[in-house]
Design a protein that fits this description.
The protein is mainly alpha-helical and 231 residues long. It has a domain of 69 residues. Helix content is 65%, strand content 4%. It has 4 helices and 2 strands, in the order E-E-H-H-H-H. A two-stranded antiparallel sheet has the order 1-2. It is elongated, with a radius of gyration of 45 Å. It starts with a strand and ends with a helix. Belongs to the SPF27 family. One of its GO terms (cellular component) is precatalytic spliceosome. It is found in: Nucleus. This is Pre-mRNA-splicing factor SPF27. Keywords: Coiled coil, mRNA processing, mRNA splicing, Nucleus, Spliceosome.
């Protein structure tokens, strides 16, 4: 099986502390949780010694986050930093207080203000009534059209997601098939290697047996093997 030797101590680790990381995860299934923890530990150690050498954001200007702060936001941030309560809404414009005053002229001024306030609030209520009538007549179709647009966007997003998932699954399938094919070739090569080693071992045994037989025959015939080799 094709393996990659990595040291747990980085580039300067000891040779005795090597960990073999398999390169065919789809083929081998004998790994357990301890092997997973070892791989995570190696990744963590590699991340600690990794130093980026390129600034990928140097072509961009330095971001100015204060540009998004409006005066109102700055005021609210200052209020929140001081832990002050938010001012309550002024509901006086929605009230119709009775005019008050002692003199007749004062009464007229107060009455004019009260009448003006009443007209403004009445106009506001009339506008609300008109908006409600318009919404009752046209809002339903508008909301339905908006819902159809959202459904179309959702359908397109789901279609894109499904297409992306299919591409990912296709990549995984191709990688799995490639690794399984590589595993098959490795097994065939491993079988050939075992067969050759076995044949070599058998040949070595036969040679040793033949050498022993020759030595016995030379001894029985009283022949010096070294003399035969020199001749």
């Amino acid at each position: 099986m094709a393996t990659l030797a990595l040291t747990s101590g980085g580039a300067f680790g000891n040779q005795d502390d090597q960990v073999l990381v398999d390169a065919l995860p789809y083929l081998d299934t004998e790994y357990n949780d301890a092997d997973r923890q070892t791989a995570l530990r190696l990744i963590d150690q590699e991340c600690k010694i990794f130093r980026p050498t390129k600034n990928y954001l140097k072509h961009l200007p330095v971001p100015d986050f204060d540009v998004f702060l409006t005066p109102c936001m700055l005021k609210e941030h200052a209020r929140m930093s001081k832990k002050q309560e938010m001012p309550k809404l002024d509901m006086s414009r929605c009230e119709l207080p009775c005019p008050s005053g002692t003199s007749r002229a004062g009464d007229k001024v107060q009455w004019r203000k009260a009448i003006k306030n009443a007209k403004a609030q009445n106009e506001h209520l009339v506008m609300r009534q008109i908006n409600l009538e318009l919404m009752e007549e046209y809002a339903a179709e508008s909301y339905l059209r908006r819902n159809r647009e959202l459904e179309q966007l959702c359908t397109e997003a789901e279609r894109e997601l499904r297409r992306t998932k299919e591409q990912v699954m296709e990549i995984h399938a191709r990688r799995k098939m490639a690794q399984l094919d590589a595993g098959r070739q490795l097994k065939e090569l491993e079988g050939s290697w075992v067969a050759m080693v076995t044949n070599n071992y058998r040949m070595e045994l036969a040679n040793n047996q033949l050498a022993a037989t020759n030595a016995q025959m030379a001894k029985r015939l009283r022949i010096d093997p070294s003399a035969l080799e020199k001749s």
